[in-house]
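ESCALATION

Customer reports they have been waiting on this structure for their group meeting. Please prioritize. Original submission:
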Amino acid sequence: MTNTQEIIIAGFGGQGVLSMGQLLVYAAMIEGKEVSWMPSYGPEMRGGTANCMVIISEARISSPILSKFDSAIVLNQPSMDKFLGKVHPGGLVIYERSTIINPPARTDIEVLGLPAIEEAHRLTSKQVANVVLLGAFLERRPVVKPENVIIALRKVLPPHRQHLLPINEQALVRGRELAIEALAESVVR
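Update from on-call: job pushed to the front of the queue and completed.
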């Protein structure tokens, strides 16, 4: 990993796009890294489009505004259409398979389509699909330690949601496993 990772996380409001970015940033802060989190969402929030730009760096960050990205985590087709072309060659795109009609055809980036929503249902909580994707991202781009994501979750989850910590931990682990399995499948092909 270079000492800076510039990430776009995008989808519909209500899919946990902004909270996924916050978790990354809080975990990076725990590790003493420089961070930036810049959300963008429509006035309707839930159901409208939402995204956040996240920068994690060992060095000072000069600007939170990005036009190109090292990685993209995408949860819907409109976001894929908007941000796919803005990922640097050699970058990474992770996406939720069930919500993308036209998967990326670029060959100059790493592409990982995962069944995060399906896995979240298996874990009995559809709200953790974003954490499944986050786990997969951290497997491919270890910008922060997964254990610091869990520490961040403990700090940001309100008291009435603390009971969801174990399922979020499982989702993070399952995402990492899915990324490993997907990589192994691509090597076999």
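Sent to customer with the following note: Strands lie at 4-12, 34-41, 49-57, 69-74, 87-96, 110-114.
Escalation resolved.
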